[in-house]
Amino acid sequence: MPENLSRQPHSRQPLTALRNPVVLFLATGLLALVVIAVGTSALAEQAAAEEAVATARDTTEVLAHSVAEPAMPKGLVAGDAGAIDRFDREVLDRLLVGDVDRVKIWAGDGRVVYSDETRLIHDVYPLGEEEQAVLAQGTTDAEVSDLSRPENGYERESNGLLEVYTRIESPEGEPLLFEVYYSAEAIDTRQEQIFAQFRPITLTALGMVVLVATGLLWALTRRLRRSAEEREHLLRAAVDASDAERVRIARDLHDGVVQDLAGASFAVSALARTPDVPHSARGGLESAGESLRTSLRALRSLMVEIYPPDLHADGLVAALDDLLARAAAAGITATAHVTGAEHASDEAVALVWRVAQEAVRNALRHSGAETLSVTVDGFGDRLVLVVTDDGRGFDPEQRRGAEHFGLRGLSSLIAEAGGHLDVRSAPGAGTTIRLEISGSAR
């Protein structure tokens, strides 16, 4: 038989969990913490790198304008050996300080006029665009050294260098390029020292976020719990009020109309057997008595629908038989079977009853079925209800009509009981309604 599944609870459960406000809040909070941690770490690392380079630039400017430029003798630019020797003896120790690995002074034509590596002095290498811009504008610039360039031939064994250059002037007034090389390892160490200063700020910020998020989560959880308790209280109050009204109506029917119909049925049947009644009238009286008994059975079935008289595990079979009395009166072959439900709680039995009631009511009203069966089976701690008819069926994807409104209205109670409901049908193939819940549902 082709089937269409109108409800797929297993696939919906993850979606339901994802719609839970607490889960969403926790997921959002965790994502926010990760973003903040990554973002602040990246920003702090970037700031530390910029600060380390800025420190190197400041050091270079101090060495250039406070050490090298004032002590530069005349003749250094012209390549005078005595001037170079005097500058080397008086200034070199004050230039090679801290993280400084190499010092070079360039003329505008690319000639090295001085270097702590004396083999470079008088060599000529073309200046790049950045160096020429510094000479022209008097700014300070920094970049990672390209150790493959010819002028860096004596630094190729290094693990990396940062070169910073600025402009100075010779005693003759000629602009020169003052260049200082810093060890990359030293710059990294300085960067780590600076970054270490940001780390407490980052951790403090994250701690405050966690603290605030925890407070908000606690408040939200309390509010949700309070709302759930209020909702449950209102639901139970509504159910209790409905049950009380059902009991009152059932009691009034039993004490009034049912008793009157029973008495009238007995009276008519007794009258039909009285010898004084003409034979021609006895058939009509027997027919009237049978009509009264049929109405009485229908009314009792209606009373069972309104409120079952003995709704617990042992009385479920009788309640279902009474529920199906209307089906039998309508000429439908109806059966009820209950197995393994002895240990089910009254709450679970009540929920099974309510779903069976709605399913049978829908079948009688809309299916046009010839047979109708209701089975309840207990499997371990699970209770399974199956209501099947051979009626006209329908397409669940195209017809979510009012005949299943009552079942949809029970969905929240089924979910709270940890169960799920399947409605399977196809045009011309009947309908099967299957409920599975915990046998200890509360």
Automatic annotation (TrEMBL):
The chain crosses the membrane at residues 21-44, 201-221. The keyword Transferase applies. One of its GO terms (molecular function) is phosphorelay sensor kinase activity. Gene3D superfamilies: 1.20.5.1930, Histidine kinase-like ATPase, C-terminal domain. It comes from the Bacteria. Residues 354-441 form the Histidine kinase domain. This is histidine kinase. It comes from uncultured Nocardioidaceae bacterium.
